[in-house]
Amino acid sequence: MNNTSSLTSQDTDTPIAPRLSGDLVIWLLILAELLTFGIFFLTYAFMRVGQVQLFNASQATLDLHTGCINTLLLITSSWAVARAVQSVRRDRNHTGANWLAVALLCGGAFLVLKTLEYAGKLQAGIDVSTNDFYLFYFMLTGFHYLHVMVGMVMLSLLWFFTRRGQYGRDNCHALETGAAFWHLVDLLWIILFPLVYVMR
Questions:
Q1: Taking every pair of C-alpha atoms in the chain, what is the biggest distance, in angstroms?
Q2: Residue 150 backbone class (left: φ over 0; alpha: ψ -120 to 50; beta: rest)
Q3: Confidence of residue 88 (pLDDT cuts 50, 70, 90)
Q4: Domains along the chain?
Q5: Residues 85, 96 contacting (CB under 8 angstroms)
Q6: How far is the C-alpha of 51 from the C-alpha of 192, rounded, in Å?
Q7: What pLDDT, on the 0 to 100 scale, is given for residue 10?
Q8: Which of 78, 96, 119, 142 has the fewest C-beta atoms under 10 angstroms from its C-beta?
Q9: 55 burial level (CB within 10 Å; 0-12, 13-18, 19+)
Q10: What's the pTM?
């Protein structure tokens, strides 16, 4: 009797080995994406050093307020995704689905604002051929825009399956994988926004 109690107590107190949330493949993809964007960022910084006045003048035409709103939207969406994962780990799928809906709304608002920003630039006759700054502006923000779209598709699928009760305390691997990618999207913008919009 005592031996059994002792074994049970030891089993209960045994610490769970830490693990990486999400699939290993998504983390390899994240590392590759960080490396790719890192090369882009360094190239942008190098080009900026040789054309400081041009880059500063071009940066002044960007809408800083819209950039700030987009930053808040992505940070909020990333927080909502984290809350969704926490909820599903507690078997609160309905709450988790609601948090994913919040993330989707924020991501959708980001895409709308960014599309309007692009449209405004194109209507003003500004495109990738205008100068080196705008070449990098459209390339960097456009590449990130595509990542947001991919992330939105992933979040939509996760929202659908979460509402159906597909995930739970012992089965949220796919949700964690999608969350890891969405956090990457948020992180890239947090670096990109001050680099392209703010730094002079």
A1: 83
A2: alpha
A3: very high
A4: 22-198 (1.20.120.80)
A5: yes
A6: 19
A7: 40
A8: 119
A9: buried
A10: 0.84
CB 66 within 8 A of CB 77: no
What's the rounded Cα separation, in Å, for the pair 153 and 87? Answer: 21
Q: What is the DSSP letter of 130?
A: S
Residue 172 pLDDT exceeds 90: no
Neighbouring residues of 156: CB distance < 8 A, sequence distance ≥ 6: 104
Say if residue 50's pLDDT is above 60. Answer: yes
Contact present, 93 and 171 (Cβ < 8 Å) = no
21 — pLDDT class (breaks 50, 70, 90): low
- pLDDT for res 179: 93
Q: Does residue 87 contact residue 96 with C-beta atoms inside 8 Å?
A: yes
Q: What percent of the chain has pLDDT over 90?
A: 71
Residue 18 has pLDDT above 60, yes or no: no
| CB 196, CB 141: distance < 8 Å | yes
**Measured distance CA(187)–CA(200) in Å, rounded:** 21
Beta bridge partners of 43: none
Length of the chain: 200
